[in-house]
Amino acid sequence: MPEHHTNNPIGKTWRGWGHGLLGVLIFSGSLPATRVAVGGFTPLFLTASRAVIAAGLGAALLALLRQKRPARGDLAPLAVVALGVVVGFPLLTALALRHITSARSIVFIGLLPLATALFGLLGAHDRPKPAFWLFSGVGSVLVAGFALARSDGADLTGDGLMLGAILLCGLGYAEGARLSRRLGGWQVISWALVLAAPAMAVLALATLPDSWAGIGLPAWAGLGYVSVFSMLVGFVFWYRGLALGGIAGVGQLQLLQPFFGLALAGLLLGEPVEGAMVAVAAGVVLCVVAAKRFA
User: Fold this and answer.
1) I want to staple 237 with a disulfide (CB 3.0 to 4.6 A). Which of 23, 60, 118, 176 is the partner?
2) pTM
């Protein structure tokens, strides 16, 4: 439910960071799971089907808990959320993972805090101090440098698709965070999913696989993860965290996601995890802590 008034702003901020961290941990498995899923499904069907499955779960929650429908003025912002996190990010990342490895795609996620904060500023809600931008920029440069160091043979098409995905996701995060202050975190993503469901259902039917026989268990498991956790459960924690702790501040936790994701990619997909990753991760953690101080 929407956040009530509190007389303990420090406790509210730390709760926001705790919720945000749980969201980041859940999202960290999204790209490895998507990488596995596109081995059995096309990007269009994967995007549509995960949205339809998550919309069914979200609609059930909304009905079970008798949530009030959004006001007419909330429909346009909900459409922006749907464009960013229900359609844009899942589709562009699925397409990107046809060109680049999950490890390479994951490091681009480190740019999400800047994208989220920038769209938050455009909404005139957050005004971080200049030092916030300094540490945020340093953290993003570390992530970008890490990506460039692993750029041998990289496909620029995949990189471009990932950058587009980051921009759309940042837009969806910022808009969803603003709405969650009024509607509640899980309600925002649930209503966005419901809003997009009719179009996604049509797309899913239009892109059904010609045969189900060749689709292995890993692809089904990947579809299940991105449908339930990436599309719904993660957002419950993430939007709650952004609403409690601030878009620009809590958004910096996204700088940690590449390294959680790389660890999962190494464990689940057998991709090598280099020692340099540990050093860069330590630097990014310091940037996140410093950025939080000045957010």
Assistant:
1) 23
2) 0.81
